[in-house]
Amino acid sequence: MTVARNIKAQRGPTLRCKGWRQEAILRMLENNLENGEDPERLVIYTGSAKAARSWDDFDRIVAALKGLEEYETLVCQSGRAIAKFHTHPRAPRVIMANGNVVGRWADRHYELQQKGLTLRPGMTAAAWQYIGSQGILQGTYQSFIGAAERFFGGTLRGRTILTAGCGGMGGAQPLAGKMAGAAVLVVDPRRARIQRRIDTGYCDRLTENLDEAVKWVETAKSTGTALSVGLVGNAAEVHTELLARGFVPDIVTDQVSVDPMGNYVPVGMTPEEADALKESDPKELTRRAHETLLTHMRAILEFEKRGSIAFEYGNGLRLKTADLGLKEALKLESFVTMFIRPFFCDGVGPFRWLAISGEESDIAEIDGMIGEIFSSNHPINHWIEMARKYVHFQGLPARIGWLGHGERSKLGVAVNEAVARGRLKGPIAFTRDHLDSGSVTSIYRETERMKDGSDGISDWPILNALLACSGGADLVAVHSNLDISSSAGQTCVADGSQLASERIRDVLNGDTGIGVMRHAEAGYERALENKRQYELGFE
Ligand SMILES: NC(=O)c1ccc[n+]([C@@H]2O[C@H](COP(=O)([O-])OP(=O)(O)OC[C@H]3O[C@@H](n4cnc5c(N)ncnc54)[C@H](O)[C@@H]3O)[C@@H](O)[C@H]2O)c1
To answer: Looking at ligand 1, which residue's alpha carbon is closest to its atom 42?
Structure first.
């Protein structure tokens, strides 16, 4: 049994693998753990999504990557390196399937994890594509600014956002809300989680006192100041108290992890007590967590009745509480149907890149290239300006930048050329969240309420992954998360070679193209226009 270690991604020009493609993948695995919320347990985020099945598996993966040739492909199954096969230089160096079980076995997933047969992959955890809270920052910003445009005349200045969950992903909320101009209050019972967001520049202030939190937020609202406040507390308790005081936020959402066996904390317990009960009496913990989730959701619905704009931010709270009998929860909309789907119709989504050398100046150089490639009124330029001001790097320097069809490949090829010419100091890895236009089926999130009723058709992520392999991505992953979602991810390494240039072009065009086509097939007019404009698909 190997003991847990403090893993950091290697920086610099020294290769441990037989090529930069393998080395970049290894550094991204290490980077996941460097940025993870509970790395000793190999947990990256959501309280349960893991980078490898065990530390022994981690070691085996590292050894396999170090020995992998430019003409070999490593096969990983749910966080375990299984075998490598002779393929060819244009093939992926790593392919993986994580967390997949057939439908009738979905409710046995936890038991299968306990037996060491599978793992919870999350989206970017087991595919080694996590870049810390920044990975979800722009999507959260687009949702908040979408709410501003639709309901508040284009700005959240002088508006309040109430939310909960300040973890790996939820921790993007305070900064995204601040970037959109709002006064944000985020509630989390784990002080250390809020402190981590303060330390990384994602949250401005921390308090354990509700009166103080409300005072700060109300002052910021009245002066039109953008501010984020983390309050140590339980959302079910705090929200109920805020309702009793007549506090009505302009926007209410949340991003706690709703899984009692993950890290959801019931009312009346400290996080440590909840963790202990998870071990000693998981049934009792689940019962208490369910009661708390119901109170939490009822409070959100009550805020909505009192005039707040309320939506779910992708954590499954509606489904969970509806399953517990609160059917009204399903009437709440999600951020995807309210704000994000039009982006998906353009093939636009959470594209991102990492400086594999660890050189921050490479990210700054790419920021500059974006200004040269895209017109000054393209939204990416405004985003980069804000990101440069607000985002502190975590782990390997990285940038999230929502780009669409034709745009990702244009940037990718230009960056590869810049690597070749020495304008950049080292290779760059391009990847994305699985929460993207053509790479996921998730019936209560990305594909909820599709126009043609195709919400649960899971052919699309599989096609996405097959196409990424055909184009020659460096890493391709197919994931399932319990019984509600199936997704695909890919990573492409710009090492400056001609082959990389061709692979990046084909993989990125395929990735966004299949996204446009998924939405065109579903009958979205905007996607149909894109299909015609980009000459995708058939008449
Ligand atoms: N919308 C998206 O794009 C998106 C993307 C990724 C993840 N998610 C979902 O968001 C959820 C959170 O993800 P994460 O990575 O931040 O998880 P995480 O486990 O890192 O953080 C969850 C946080 O919720 C807090 N929490 C637990 N009980 C609470 C309570 N009663 N009141 C207030 N806070 C409480 C925990 O202390 C923890 O800090 C997951 O369910 C995940 O699936 C959504």
So the answer is: 315
